[in-house]
């Protein structure tokens, strides 16, 4: 039994050092002999057993005796543990290669991260969205044909081959949850992409959705959109008019101009128009993303975006590692 | 002999292994080396690292001088008649092979050995006997050396006008027993037999006088007597050595050659083909110089240690060979009564207590096979081992045996 463990452990170490390769070879010989019901004649099993129980004996005679007596039992336990560990290691690596995260599409257990800190937020879309009342996901989406950047905020290269459009709502918890991913994408891909944010205030769901959306436009007027957006998401629980104006002041915007903009309903119709366009595309929930012609609904994991973008950009994953 | 003072000379005993003291009980396999030997070898490499006996420059002269000085030291140590009788070899094994392959046998000659021969004194004879049609006889040592059978074999050979060649292990590396040399030689002389000793465990532990013993050949290893690794000596009576066929031939073994022939040179160079391990043999001289001071005390010292260990462990283990430690020189070969595997015992002693012993069949497979024993654990002592170490060995072995 111990030989199988030795084979695995020293086999892996043997990749790096000849010293261990020799032991791995012996272990292999041993395992092979045992499988064919012969005696392991390199004595590796006895050597390991003596080495290990001898070390325990140094601590206490009792420990040594237990290690010696139940060596086969311990070996079995360790073998099983090793195999289980190896299985999860392999699974994690496989998931990483295929899905870009170690948890896999179902967000399963990841051995490299037992506490689950890298686990993507519920990627089963259901529940990672805000919806127009009475709707949920599942609607047929049409990718927008004429891409306009005149109706709101965008960042990146207007000539880029990959266009990411996000239909979001500043009052929606899941739009907020998608923010780190959005930021990461912008940072990572820079001029290789064009990111456009489109208004889709869920007015039936969030009371403050519309004013918040308009306020964002007012901040854009003053060239302070991205800071304001961040502030909006950070203070998602309070987005009434007074709050919205207060945030502008906090950020040092021209508050008279901002109040005027908001009070006058300057962007009401633009927001309405964008919203209707969204409805026409079949959107019912936020956040809804389009990456060129592909849609991604809900606060999905970064890796899913990455996969689609890389494909659109024609980057294979190993090239991307560089 | 002041053991503590002796220990001072052995770097590994002074420094330990990774700073931890070791108990080295594998002396039958190889002994440790004192600093005097190591320094002597370095002296060669530092000061006169040249070939001896061939070139005529200063370095070569220095090397030649030290090399032949070493030979004389060894000659005196075993009291051989002349330096010509001292042939440097790699080890005991080579010495025995030299004689086995080069001695001029006749078909029907009888090779007589004991039932406890080291592979080195077994296999060469198996081959030579097969190739040259010799007979082999084995003398049992089970109830002590069977002198009667021995004499019978010799007598029988002589009556058939066949010659006898006795090649025996002086002291067994497996159980430490020695053969009754005096009686054996006396009988052998009576029937004109040639006598060779595998003295690998003899010369290092007891003073050996080849003239007094009256043996014809004697092989031993330097590395079992404080000397450098891969050095050995074959002693041979000059007139017999002169009658051997060449063994390994080439450089140094001839006086002159033509395209079709060679005139072999005199002893001992005739059997020392090619350039030699000069550092090794010069180091061996230093080892013998060192050993000489203590040789008369070593055997008694080893018996004392063997007694402590035998008395401490005889209720826990089965001892190979006689119970009486006085009959087992510096060797304590054993198997646990509770059937703990001998390899396990040895490995546990090593990993738990830094005690180094050997386990297995000690190159005497034939005896183990015949006796249906798997092997044994073996502790073997030397001049630098202490009574304290023997006591620790007893104690630690008991602890380990308790694990089962
Ligand atoms: C009795 C005996 N004969 C022969 C040998 C062989 O010695 P070497 O390996 O130095 O040739 C040994 C060493 O193990 C021995 O103990």
CATH architecture of the largest domain in chain B: 3-Layer(aba) Sandwich
Question: Are there runs of chain A of 5+ residues with pLDDT below 50, and where?
Answer: 121-125
What is the level-2 CATH architecture name of the largest domain in chain A?
Answer: 3-Layer(aba) Sandwich
The CATH superfamily of the largest domain in chain B bears the name Type I PLP-dependent aspartate aminotransferase-like (Major domain)
Named once each, the bound ligands are:
pyridoxal-5'-phosphate
Largest sheet of chain B: 7 strands, mixed
Q: Return the structural class of chain A.
A: alpha+beta
Number of strands of chain B: 15
| Greatest contact between two chains | A-B, 16 and 13 residues
Major beta sheet, strand line-up of chain B: 2-8-7-6-5-3-4
| Number of domains as seen in the coordinates of chain B | 2
| Strand line-up across the major sheet of chain A | 2-4-3-6-7
CATH fold-level topology of the largest domain in chain B: Aspartate Aminotransferase, domain 2
C-alpha Rg of chain B (nearest Å): 22 Å
């Amino acid at each position: 039994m111990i030989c199988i463990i030795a084979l695995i452990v020293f086999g892996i170490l043997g990749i790096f050092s000849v010293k261990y390769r020799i032991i791995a070879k012996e272990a292999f010989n041993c395992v092979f002999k045992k499988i064919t019901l012969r005696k392991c004649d390199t004595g590796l099993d006895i050597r390991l057993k003596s080495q290990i129980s001898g070390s325990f004996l140094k601590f206490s005679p009792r420990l040594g005796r237990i290690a010696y007596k139940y060596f086969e039992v311990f070996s079995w336990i360790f073998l099983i543990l090793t195999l289980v560990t190896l299985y999860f290691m392999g699974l994690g690596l496989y998931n990483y290669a295929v899905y870009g995260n170690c948890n896999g599409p179902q967000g399963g257990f990841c051995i490299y991260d037992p506490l689950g800190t890298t686990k993507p937020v519920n990627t089963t879309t259901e529940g990672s969205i805000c919806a127009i009342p009475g709707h949920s996901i599942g609607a047929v989406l049409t990718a927008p044909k004429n891409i306009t950047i005149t109706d709101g905020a965008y960042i990146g290269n207007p000539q880029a081959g990959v266009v990411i459009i996000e239909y979001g709502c500043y009052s929606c918890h899941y739009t907020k949850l998608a923010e780190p991913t959005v930021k990461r994408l912008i940072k990572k891909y820079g001029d290789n992409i064009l990111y456009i944010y489109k208004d889709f205030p869920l007015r039936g769901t969030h009371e403050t959705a519309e004013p918040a959306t308009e306020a964002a436009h007012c901040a854009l007027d003053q060239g302070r959109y991205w800071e304001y957006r961040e502030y909006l998401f950070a203070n998602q629980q309070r987005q009434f008019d007074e709050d919205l104006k207060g945030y502008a002041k906090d950020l040092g915007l021209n508050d008279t101009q901002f109040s005027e903009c908001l009070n006058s309903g300057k962007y009401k119709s633009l927001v309405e128009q964008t919203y209707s366009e969204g409805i026409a595309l079949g959107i019912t929930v936020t956040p809804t993303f389009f990456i060129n012609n592909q849609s991604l609904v809900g606060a999905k994991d970064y890796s899913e975006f990455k996969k689609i973008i890389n494909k659109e950009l024609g980057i294979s994953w190993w090239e991307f590692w560089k | 002999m002041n053991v503590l003072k002796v220990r001072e000379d052995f770097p590994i005993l002074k420094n330990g292994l990774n700073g931890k003291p070791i108990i080295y009980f594998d002396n039958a396999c190889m002994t440790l080396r004192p600093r005097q030997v190591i320094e002597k070898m370095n002296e060669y490499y530092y000061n006169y690292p040249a070939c001896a006996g061939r070139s005529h420059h200063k370095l070569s002269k220095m090397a030649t001088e030290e090399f032949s000085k070493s030979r004389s030291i060894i000659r005196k140590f075993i009291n051989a008649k002349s330096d010509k009788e001292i042939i440097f070899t790699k080890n005991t094994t080579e010495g025995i092979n030299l004689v086995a392959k080069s001695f001029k046998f006749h078909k029907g000659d009888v090779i007589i050995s004991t039932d406890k021969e080291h592979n080195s004194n077994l296999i060469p004879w198996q081959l030579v006997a097969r190739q040259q049609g010799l007979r082999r006889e084995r003398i049992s040592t089970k109830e002590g050396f069977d002198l009667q059978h021995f004499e019978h074999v010799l007598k029988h050979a002589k009556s058939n006008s066949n010659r006898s060649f006795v090649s025996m292990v002086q002291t067994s590396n497996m159980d430490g027993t020695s053969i009754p040399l005096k009686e054996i030689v006396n009988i052998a002389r009576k029937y004109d037999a040639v006598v060779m000793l595998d003295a690998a465990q003899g010369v290092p532990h007891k003073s050996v006088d080849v003239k007094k013993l009256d043996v014809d050949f004697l092989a031993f290893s330097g590395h079992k007597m404080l000397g450098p690794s891969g050095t050995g000596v074959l002693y041979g009576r000059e007139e017999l050595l002169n009658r051997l066929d060449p063994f390994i031939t080439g450089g140094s073994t001839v006086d002159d050659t033509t395209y079709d022939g060679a005139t072999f040179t005199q002893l001992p160079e005739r059997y020392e083909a090619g350039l030699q391990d000069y550092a090794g043999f010069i180091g061996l001289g230093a080892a013998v110089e060192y050993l000489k001071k203590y040789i008369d005390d070593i055997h008694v010292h080893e018996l004392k240690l063997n007694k402590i260990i035998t008395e401490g462990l005889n209720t826990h283990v089965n001892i190979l060979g006689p119970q009486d430690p006085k009959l087992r020189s510096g060797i304590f070969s054993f198997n646990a009564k509770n059937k703990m595997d001998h390899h396990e015992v040895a490995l546990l002693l090593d990993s738990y207590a830094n005690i180094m012993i050997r386990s297995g069949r000690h190159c005497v497979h034939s005896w183990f096979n015949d006796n249906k024993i798997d092997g044994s654990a073996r502790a073997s002592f030397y001049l630098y081992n202490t009574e304290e170490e023997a006591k620790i060995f007893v104690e630690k072995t008991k602890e380990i045996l308790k694990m089962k």
